[in-house]
């Protein structure tokens, strides 16, 4: 049955599935690592128990999410050698070094200090423990730095030449490879999205507990109130910043990948006297029209060109075989933008409630915040789909087509592994996610338990070390309890 499918399409679906699962965890842990560092710093500064309680509450969730992110990332990377070996061969000389640096950042910096962050508070002292929290927070951002650099290079390749004999991309300027034209915009937009994702998850959990306390006619704990307040401050401040960064990223995309912007806007036709901003429509690639279109005249030109009458090219200027799938890009972009403005609205709502003294006594605000809890995860997936599908039909934009990047595999082989991934991922990561939700269901309080070691005392790699004098008594044949 799988033989009737296209192997390249199955490989694309497999990579999209695995990277979507993977992306959810770093999108959460990047922001959560920084949040934990802030909580730990506030605890050391103020000695208020609510900050320690929140740290202990969220560090358990962070440990699980971090572990699932690492495992899903390792599995995903193997596909470069199985399903996309041609791409790996051709682009490997350029992207190999940044991806190696990402591994160094993730495993040597993050994982190296993670154990101290999780278990070292009572072992290494407050100063070193705080340094470990900061190292993990910085490590998550550095890991994102290198991965986004590789991804950005695939969108806006720079600093390379193509070997005439092998067809490989060879680096000529390392700094141009890393700081390619779209990298600064993509990095800022993605990392800010991660912080917003964390803020809304934290705010959603806090709001759910505030509603629960209200139903039970009990006062909310100090930790819950603080958690909600910090999350709403983050939403209020960062949401408008993210909208601005998204606009700047869009202008950069218009410069370097105009066909993607045409698909995002649904512009099949060129508009020489100002292009409308389509709010709704059904893209039709066959007829090259946007059916049932509802738009605001000339607003797209104002946003993209800062002039109502500025001309904008449409997909009628792009060959059919170089156009991205408009329907997917059109709708994923609108989902992302809609969620972004919803985040802005919730942030402003919370600000008004805060000034009125109703931040902790506004049930409709809390219901909205609970509903918006997973919105960041949906938005980052929609943004990733917009970016990656909009790059099609290229793997390296304008240089290497996706169909030319795939390994010479038969469809049944790719399809079988895809089915295995779907079953295993939903079983393993589904169970992990359910456990995380169970941890979130528990209300944080001042008596929040900490992560505990598996055994008391120091770990030993060579078994149990005899007590002082015990080894000598064993040699002499003296009886002891252990024997």
Automatic annotation (TrEMBL):
Alphabetized UniProt keyword annotations: Cell membrane, Electron transport, Heme, Iron, Membrane, Metal-binding, Transmembrane, Transmembrane helix, Transport
Positions of the UniProt region annotated as Disordered: 463-483
GO CC term (a single one): plasma membrane
Gene Ontology terms for molecular function: electron transfer activity; heme binding; metal ion binding; oxidoreductase activity, acting on diphenols and related substances as donors, oxygen as acceptor
Main location (coarse class): membrane
InterPro entries (alphabetical): Cyt-d_ubiquinol_oxidase_su_1 (IPR002585)
Leader peptide range in chain numbering: none
Keyword Electron transport applies: yes
UniProt subcellular location: Cell inner membrane; Cell membrane
Alphabetical GO biological process terms: aerobic electron transport chain
Keyword field contains Electron transport: yes
Membrane topology of the entry: Multi-pass membrane protein
Domain of life: Bacteria
Residues spanning the membrane: 20-45, 57-80, 100-120, 127-148, 192-211, 223-245, 328-352, 364-385, 418-437
One Pfam family named in its UniProt record: Cyt_bd_oxida_I
Recorded family membership: Belongs to the cytochrome ubiquinol oxidase subunit 1 family.
Protein name per its UniProtKB record: Cytochrome ubiquinol oxidase subunit I
Lineage of source species: Bacteria, Pseudomonadati, Pseudomonadota, Alphaproteobacteria, Rhodobacterales
């Amino acid at each position: 049955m799988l033989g009737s499918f296209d192997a390249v399409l199955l490989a694309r679906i497999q990579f999209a599935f695995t990277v979507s699962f993977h992306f959810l965890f770093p999108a959460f842990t990047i922001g959560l690592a920084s949040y934990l560092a802030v909580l730990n710093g506030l605890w050391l500064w103020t000695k208020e128990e609510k900050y320690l309680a929140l740290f202990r509450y969220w560090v358990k969730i962070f440990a699980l999410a971090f572990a699932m992110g690492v495992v899903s990332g390792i599995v995903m990377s193997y596909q470069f050698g199985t399903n996309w070996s041609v791409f790996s061969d051709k682009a490997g000389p350029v992207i190999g070094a940044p991806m190696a640096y990402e591994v160094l950042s993730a495993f040597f910096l993050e994982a190296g200090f993670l154990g101290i962050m999780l278990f070292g508070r009572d072992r290494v002292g407050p100063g070193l423990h705080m340094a470990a929290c900061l190292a993990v927070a910085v490590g998550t951002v550095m890991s994102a730095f290198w991965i986004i650099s590789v991804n950005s290079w695939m969108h806006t390749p720079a600093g390379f030449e193509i070997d005439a004999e092998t067809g490989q991309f060879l680096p000529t300027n390392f700094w141009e490879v890393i700081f390619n034209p779209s990298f600064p915009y993509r990095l800022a937009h993605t990392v800010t999205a991660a912080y917003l994702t964390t803020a809304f998850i934290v705010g959603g959990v806090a709001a759910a507990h505030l509603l629960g306390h209200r139903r039970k006619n009990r006062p909310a704990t100090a930790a819950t109130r603080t958690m909600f307040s910090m999350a709403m401050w983050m939403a209020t401040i960062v949401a408008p910043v993210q909208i601005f960064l998204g606009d700047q990223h869009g202008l950069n995309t218009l410069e370097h990948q105009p066909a993607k912007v045409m698909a995002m806007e649904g512009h099949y036709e060129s508009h020489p006297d100002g292009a409308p901003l389509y709010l709704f429509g059904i893209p039709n690639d066959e007829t090259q029209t946007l059916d049932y279109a509802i738009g605001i005249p000339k607003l797209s030109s104002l946003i993209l060109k800062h002039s109502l009458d500025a001309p904008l090219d449409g997909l009628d200027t792009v060959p059919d075989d170089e156009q991205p799938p408009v329907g997917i890009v059109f709708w994923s972009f609108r989902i992302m933008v809609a969620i972004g403005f919803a985040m802005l609205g919730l942030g402003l709502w919370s600000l008004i409630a805060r000034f009125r003294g109703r931040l902790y006594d506004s049930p409709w605000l809390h219901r909205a915040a609970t509903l918006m809890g997973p919105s960041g995860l949906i938005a980052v997936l929609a943004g990733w789909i917009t970016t990656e599908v909009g790059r099609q039909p290229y793997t390296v934009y304008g240089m290497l087509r996706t169909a030319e990047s795939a390994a010479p595999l038969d469809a049944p082989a790719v399809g079988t592994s895809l089915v295995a991934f779907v079953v295993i991922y939903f079983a393993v990561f589904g169970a992990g996610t359910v456990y995380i939700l169970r941890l979130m269901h528990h209300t944080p309080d001042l008596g929040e338990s900490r992560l505990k070691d598996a055994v008391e005392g120091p770990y030993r790699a060579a078994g149990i070390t005899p007590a002082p004098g015990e080894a000598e008594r064993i040699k002499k044949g003296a009886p002891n309890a252990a024997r």
